[in-house]
Amino acid sequence: MTTLPNVLTPAMLAERWSCSEQHIRNMIDRGQLPSFKIGEKLLRIRREHVEAFECQSGDLPGSEANFVLPGKMSEDSGDVIDLEQRTQKKRLAAPRLDTRNSRARPARM
How far apart are CA 97 and CA 95, in angstroms? Predict the structure, then answer.
């Protein structure tokens, strides 16, 4: 990997990790990634914290090693579900005969 500057913006880190800037901000909000503010709005992340996170986690958010297309499962996953059985059309419930049908018209006399 390339040499990092001493301080990174969320956008710079998002580009490095191939994820969205919002994902980086969410990680900061959850306390997973330390950061500091310049003024009231500008977030910055220290290089040491980025390197520590990369070493600790191994797989980075958005890395190709973790990447699975939506609707697909990784081949090594043991939790395979046969979706064809689960997506059959649901049957409508039969009307109850022991209660008055609220949509039925009242009988005319």
Answer: 6
How does DSSP assign 27-85, residue by residue? Answer: HHHTTSS--EEETTTEEEEEHHHHHHHHHHHSSPTT-TTT---TT---TT-S----HHH
- The β-bridge partners of 44 are 36
Considering the entire predicted model, what is its pTM? 0.51
CA atoms of 24 and 32, how far apart (whole Å): 9
Please check whether residue 10 is in contact with residue 43, taking contact to mean a CB–CB distance below 8 angstroms.
Answer: yes
Quick one: DSSP state of residue 14? H
Q: Which residue has the tokens 């090594």?
A: 76
Residue pointed to by tokens 């500091």? 36
- The predicted-structure confidence for 48-73, as pLDDT tens digits, reads as follows 999 999 998 765 554 444 444 344 44
